[in-house]
Every structure is written in structure tokens, then in C-alpha cells.
Amino acid sequence: MKDLRMVIKVLFVEKKDIFLSIICGFIAGITAVALFSASGYLISKAALAPPIYTLMILVASVKMLGIISALSRYGERYFSHRGTFTMLSNLRVSFYEKLEPLAPAIFGKYRSGDLLARIVGDIETLQNFFLRVFYPPIVLLLIFFWTIFFTTFFSFTVSLVLIVGFLLTTVFVPAFFAWRQSKVEWKVRESRGELSTDVTEFLYGFRDLKIYQQLEGKEKQLSKSTEAYLQEQERESVSNLFSQAINTFVSLMITVCVLAVGSYLVYNGQLDGIYLAMLVMISLTVFENTTPMAIFPSHMQDSKQAASRLASVVRDEPMRKDADKKKHVQPENAPEIEIKNIRFTFPDEIRHTLENVSLKLESGSKTAIVGPSGSGKSTLLQLMLNLFYVDQGEILLNNIPINDLTEESIWENTNVVLQANHFFYGTIRDNLQLAKDGMSDREMQETLIKVDLGHFTLEDPVLEKGDNLSGGEKQRLAIARAMLKNAPLWLLDEPTSSVDALTEEKIYQHIFEKANEDTLVLVSHRLTGLEKMDQIIVMDHGKVIESGTFEALMNRQGYFYEMKMIEQSVFLGQ
């Protein structure tokens, strides 16, 4: 129930629709009972050949009740569905507002298909919380209260039978199925998440599956996920239909009891026979409102599981400071970065990715971070961008902890080139304009020339994810985007790994000219061209093992020296 409080809180944003749904639902239900009871009384009364005006009044009353019932039922559907759609909209916005600050770190914990299933499927499931769980019991209670109160004026014994039927169909039978369902772990939501994940991976990896001829195996796995999901849906549907059948059977048995008790009372002279048909019609009609209670436990369980799956995404994540408590800083010059004894571990991993890392990057300095693959270089760069949470220690930007800064104030003052850069469907111009507003076509075209993409025009198309670009072209386009932004901090992660040596040298020349007075951090596997760096940080297994200038590290003949010698022997054949 704790997780459902979030849903109830969002639900009560639309109090007006809730109250109108309850009022219209009550009027629709009580007028339906009155309509059929009046019809039963009319049939009985007509058999006694009363005055014509009596029948006219009864017929007019039946018509009026029919019109009121239809209009109020329409009002109930209108206000309940409007409230539901508004609740779903508010819930999506509320969940996204909590989810958005956790990206991209959240993708390390949840697979994209599972997240999609939660954002779409589980929120969609919660539409039944209001329509099937929240307000129907309130409406049902009001209808039964006034129906039983009305019935006592004609027969106290029949009203007791209705009370017993009310308790059976709205309390005991649903409670039994709720207990029964608690014994069974419904996996519809989990299997839907697994199916969504398998479909996403199948579509993303379709090309590689075709190349390696593993398409058939993946299709079988996808078929198993589909079959498992369908089986869970079937189990749930059978359970719901069975509970509805039992509830309907019990309500019909109550009506039979009302007929039997009423007949006995008429026989003994304790009840006027003209009211017997009316009481039977009351019983038949009022128990139609108990049908939603038959599947109440199922929808309640669904809502609890959906709310729990949504809450689990944001509940266990470390909470950042409120945005209004953070500082938005616009540095006047190149920032200084200090990293103090940080430790970081990716979710569900035992091995520390970074352990006790400390370093200082002076304002306007040029720093290279090198080391073997998996040493934590890229992770350290992403921590500087505040994309992940450190487990221990802190990172300071101009002597201010980055957790005290808004993410926007960090990102808007940083030129970033990561190993994987996203390119949107559109044109070269569209993808360059992400850098900043107000750029001229001439400025963009000149930057393309600097990164050796002068053969492109700004109108050239870019397919989804840049599929029509080579690896080197993607990297150079990302570098052009960073150069156009022209912020005082540069964070470059293997920006030219897919570029030939001559083009790489040309690009770095333009970058260093552009970043002459800026703070620059370069992550690289290549050790050539690092002589111009102010300091080189050497990492291995998540730790800093050496640091210093190129000359100092070579004279020390340590780990960096060995790496440099190996590189020369491989690429120069020495």
C-alpha cells in the first residue's frame, strides 16, 4: 500500500472528477434500483386493475427514472474516464520528473526494454486503480445502504437477507479470492517486461544476428517469452472469470432467497403480495452493482504490483539534492577540477571500477588520462560530468562539490565528446545546431572543414543513429559539435580512435588552438602526441598508479614508459 500512496496522491489532483464520478455513479445505481422496483410494483398493481391515473403516474415515474439513470450513467462514465486519463497523464509526468535526473545512470541498472515496459505498461495498468479499485466500493456502499434502508419499510426480514448478500458478494467472496491470489505470484507484469526486453534486443541486434547466423535461436527465445506472457495472461483471465462467475452465482442465490422468504411472508400475511415482485426486482438490480467487486482483488493486486515496479526504479536510487537548493554557476574562466579520494562501483557489481582516486586539474591545464582498457578512464570522465553518483569522496568544480551544482551548469560549460555519441535523424545542420543557438551557416561549414568533413554540406542527410556515417565521420562530427559549443571545459573520451593519424594530428591542432586557455581532459589509448600535455595520469584497475609530465614519466621508466615502448614496437616495428 505504501507504493500506492504515490498513485493516490496523483489521483487527488483531480478531486472534482472523483466526487462527480461518485455522485453520478450513486445516482445511476440507485435510480436503476428504483426503476426496476417501480416496474415490479407497476406489473403487480396493473393486475389489480387500479384507476388509470395511478398507472399513468407509475408509467411516468418509470420513464423519468429511466432517463435519469441513463444520463447519470453517462455522467459517471464521462467523469470517471476523464479523471482516469488525467491521472495517467499526471502519473507519467510525475514518474518522468523523478526518472529524468537519474539518467543515464539508471540504464546501468535496468535494461531499456524493461524500463519501457514499466513506463508504458505498468502506468497503463494503473488506470484500473481508479476505475476498478478506488471509487466502485464507495458507490456500491452508498447504493446498498439506501436500498436496504428503503427495503426495511416493507420487510425487515428481506432487508436482512440483502445485508447477508451484500457481505457475501462484496466482502467474503472477494476476500477469499484475494487470499487465493496471494498464494499465487502473478507474473504478468514481469513477463511483459521480459518480452519487451527481448523484443528490443532482437530489433537492435537484428543485423548482428543475421551476420552470425544466430537469428533462429533468438527467434525461439522470443517465442518462449511471448508464450510465457500469454500463459500468464490466460491464468489471470481464467481467475477473473471464475471469481465473476462465483459472485454472480451467489447474487442469484440471494435473489432466490429473497423470493422464497418473500413468498413465505406473503403466505403468513406478514407482507402484502403486491410488493413481492418489487422486492425481487430490487434484489436482481442491486446485485448487478456487485459485479466489479468480483475482480476487485485482481485489479488491486495488479495496481499494487504496477505501483511497486514503478516505485522500485526511483526508490532505491541515491537522491540528489533538490534542484532549488543547487547552485547554478557560470564560470568566468577555465574551471579547476579536484577529485578527492573517490570510489565508484557500477550497480550489481562487486569489483570497484574506481578506488581511492585523487587528482587535481589546474585551471587552463591540459591533462591526458591513459591506461589499458577497463582501467576506469571513461568512468572517471563521466563522473566529472556528474552522470553517475560516487560511492565515496567528492569531485569539486572551482572548489564547489558538483553535487551542489545543477547538472545544467556543468553541462552547458563543457564540450563533451564521448566514445558513443548520438546523432539524430535529420541533416548535418540539425545535428550541429545542438551545440548552441544562433550559429551561422558559415561558422558551421568552417568547423566541418577543420575536422576534415568539408565534403559534407549542411543539408546532407543523417539517418537514425548516424547509420549512413562511418565511425571516423561520426567522431569528427561530434568533435565539430564540441568545437562549435566553445565552452571553457573540454572532456574528450577517445575522440579520434577511428581517425587516421594524419587527420588526427590536424584535428588536435585545431582543438588545442581552440582550447588554448581552457581546461582540457583527454582520455586516450594512444600515447603519441602527449608531449604537449601539462600532466599525464596513468590508471590501471581503477587506480592512479603514475602521474606527471611526459618527460618525467619517461625518465622514471615505470608503467607509462613500458606502455610507450610497447606502442613503439607494435606500430613502428622496433
TrEMBL record:
Q: Where found? A: Cell membrane
Q: Can you say what this protein is called?
A: Thiol reductant ABC exporter subunit CydC
Gene Ontology biological process terms from the UniProt entry: cell redox homeostasis; glutathione transmembrane transport
A single GO cellular-component term on record = plasma membrane
The record lists the membrane-crossing segments as 20-44, 50-72, 133-154, 160-179, 245-267
- SUPFAM superfamilies found in the cross-reference section: ABC transporter transmembrane region, P-loop containing nucleoside triphosphate hydrolases
UniProt keyword Membrane present:
yes
Q: Which UniProt keywords apply?
A: ATP-binding, Cell membrane, Membrane, Nucleotide-binding, Transmembrane, Transmembrane helix, Transport
How this chain sits in the membrane, per its record, is: Multi-pass membrane protein
Q: Where is the ABC transporter domain?
A: 337-566
Q: Which residues form the ABC transmembrane type-1 domain?
A: 19-302
Keyword Protease appears in the UniProt entry: no
Q: Name the major location.
A: membrane
Q: Which domain of life is it from?
A: Bacteria
Which Gene Ontology molecular function entries are recorded, alphabetically? ABC-type oligopeptide transporter activity; ATP binding; ATP hydrolysis activity
